[in-house]
Design a protein that fits this description.
212 residues, lpxc deacetylase, domain 1, two-stranded parallel ribbon, 21% strand
Amino acid sequence: MIEVTAAEIPIMDGSAAAFIYLLQTAGIVEQPAKKKFIRVTQPVEVVEGDKWVRLTPHDGFVVTLSIDFNHPAFNLAPQTVTIDFADHSYIDEISRARTFGFMHEVEYMHTHGPGTGGSLDNAIVIDDEYVLNPEGLRFPDEFVRHKILDAIGDLYIVGYPLIAAFSGYKSGHALNNTLLRTLLATPRAREFVTFDDPLDAPSSFHRLPEVV
């Protein structure tokens, strides 16, 4: 159970790291019921202008996302990243990636709200040329890794892990949510599955987080 005393979850440092720590500290208790997954059986896609998101069948969970910002700070690293969770850890590769915004957006929020607490302590802030955070980026491609963090959170709203490949170009919360609603409205594109032996599930779901 997670309790909050405000209208939304606090931003912490702009990443999922603080919440991962709390979940690790709380620990994991094995449940008597089999874990249920949603397996994507047919491609599902949503397109809005030049933006798109897609779910396709895949025996595991892999995410490929692309962003497109014509800005010096973004052009220093690849703007497309693929993370196959059969080989990579969400905790190590994604959870520490922070949200980001431009200085003019932070100034506007401070004046008009919401987001009046936005600062270098809880986001990557960019001016016309540079990242302003004195510590720099946690990953060279931290921007797109945070978009992957966003997408995973958006997809988990469905309540079950997805056995699928998710890909997108210039995606955001609203587009990801529309994709999820499209999947739920297309029964032939999905099925619920369980596994008698947990190790029969795709290897993307075998790794359990360790307390650090």
